[in-house]
Amino acid sequence: MSEDIYWTVSVAIWIGKIALYVGLFIGVGGAFFVNWIGGRSLLASRGALWVVGFSLVAAPLSVGMQGLDALGMGLAGLGQQLVWKTGYSTSYGLTAAIATASMAAALVAILSRGVLGKVLSLAALLGVGVALASGGHGGAAYPQWLTRPAVFLHAIGIAFWAGSLIPLVAVLAARGPEAVSVLRRFSVVIPFAVMPLIAAGMVLALVQLGGIDALWGTAYGQVLMVKLIPVIALFLVAALNRFGLTESAERHDPNAITRLRRTIGVEVALVLVIFAVAACWHFTPRPLADAVGV
Fold first, then answer.
1. What global pTM score does this model have?
2. Which end of the chain is more exposed for a tag (fewer CB within 10 A), N or C?
3. How far, CA to CA in Å, does 122 sit from each of 24, 34, 52, 107, 261?
């Protein structure tokens, strides 16, 4: 594969990964949020529909990109059956298939209400965890009895948190009677998503790295260090929202509501940066702990 073809396919794979993350975490997570927590609005529903719809197209295309990468072919090879067969034969093919099913369920859940919307959105959220635990560095690392459940919990936690952001911004912007109740319900539930997310993330990092020197001595560790910058910033902004603005917003303080809406917008931007960095893991060699099966 020539250098130009390599970079073209690599960029396409990277974009496809980001699109998949956006669809799974923001789209599916958003469908779950509006069905279980509240905040269903025209803006939130349309946003989730567009995100999921775009990702439903991008996910299968990303499988073709995987096939091109495996075969050392350029984008012109997308029309060949062998490329798609090769892409779906990889662990990513299974991930994309489960992710597509989850996003399809989320799409119907967004358009539904009541029990059907709840059941489909819950199934879609669980599908996010299953999809990401089925492949990738985390899902393939040993011991899998530990890493696969950790990836599952980590993915579900991200989906709930990231998926809540757009509906929260929308309901706060509307300043309707539902805004405060939705914010209160979210404040009660979010610790139960964030704590497993943090614990699972720490477990995965320890297993993957194998030692502290791998942070700067391996490509995986270097990507992790870069990712930690927006992650730490995200937690700081979230802490500001939770402990500095939420209580005042719940008392219907208009200034606090405006500031909260803006800082949640900052959270959205940081989440997208995290997705972009995490997508770079596809191009890193398998971590030592994974490679040696320990």
1. 0.91
2. C
3. 13, 11, 15, 12, 26
